[in-house]
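Researcher: Let's do a round of design. I'm pasting the structure tokens now; please hold your answer until I've finished.
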């Protein structure tokens, strides 16, 4: 009876071996999430002010109220591009590199 109790305690001693193997993929996923979070904050804001100042007011000579409107459209498009890139990268993150090759 004592042998079976000891065996069951030994099997519950720590996390299974496959758990430690997933730490690399967790770190990779968190790096991807952090990268796209920073990109989501900086890219639309940067494109908003840059397009407003240099493109719409600078080279196209638009009024300030018109340049606000068109710069906001550029920022919204940038948000959609970043979201689409994140979904694409997250979708393909877990797939093996040679998925399509049949040797």
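Researcher: That's everything. Go ahead.
Model: Designed sequence:
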């Amino acid at each position: 009876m004592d042998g079976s109790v000891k065996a069951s305690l030994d099997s519950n001693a720590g996390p299974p071996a496959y758990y430690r193997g997933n730490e690399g993929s967790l770190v990779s996923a968190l790096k991807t999430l952090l990268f796209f979070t920073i990109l989501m904050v900086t890219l639309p804001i940067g494109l908003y002010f840059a397009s407003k100042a240099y493109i719409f007011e600078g080279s196209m000579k638009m009024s300030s109220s018109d340049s606000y409107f068109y710069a906001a459209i550029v920022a919204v498009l940038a948000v959609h591009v970043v979201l689409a890139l994140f979904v694409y990268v997250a979708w393909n993150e877990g797939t093996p590199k040679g998925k399509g090759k049949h040797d």
